Amino acid sequence: MGHPLGTIARLTKREALVEITTAVRSLRAVRYYSDQEIEPAQVRRWVDTARWTGSSKNSQPWRFVTVRDSDRLEALSRLGEHAGHLEGCAVAVAIGMRPGPHPFATALDLGRVVQSLMLAAHADGVGSCVAVFEPAGNVRRAGEMLGAGDELVIDLAIGFGHADHTAEPAAGPSPPDRLPVDVLLRDERFNDV
Ligand SMILES: Cc1cc2nc3c(=O)[nH]c(=O)nc-3n(C[C@H](O)[C@H](O)[C@H](O)COP(=O)(O)O)c2cc1C
What we know:
Elements: H1 13-26, H2 40-50, E1 62-67, H3 70-77, E2 91-97, H4 103-123, E3 127-132, H5 136-145, E4 153-161, H6 181-184
Antiparallel strand pairs: 1-2, 2-4, 3-4
């Protein structure tokens, strides 16, 4: 088995940490995609990275399904108001979560594994954007469409693809639309938020 950090293990620890913070800072939602294809092996590598994400009690409650079929992508893109970009992506990865006893923990596990997948793709120069299925009826429909059975809940899929820079301006490294640290961070107590 390879080292869980993969190629990053060849960097010094400091170099690796700089790369990780740069990746987090520069990750933007990409909703318009070029025609460039994404190989199944590439998605497999992203999942191979994301599976190292920590989860509540190490339950690893996530399962993944790739969707490339254009009719299926189009059907998924219609599951609510926020999934339209799935229609144009090169591949979508739907995430099925096994519900645990604590919904908060399941939601947190989902968020963490989503970020891991998106960062792994970002490291390959591939853009992505979450597509949440809502309301509840569309979550059920996603499960039916993707053969999830009763065990897994599919709240979202992630659209992946190389960014179409003609359709959307390329993201810069310093996003202007984030709250400053001085607004976000307090010492000891949340006074004056
Ligand atoms: C939990 C979560 C759910 C999201 N759901 C959607 C979605 O359903 N459709 C969509 O187009 N973008 C979705 N996004 C992307 C956000 O809109 C985007 O991250 C946010 O506007 C900030 O933009 P940026 O990531 O490009 O900096 C979601 C992001 C997160 C973290």
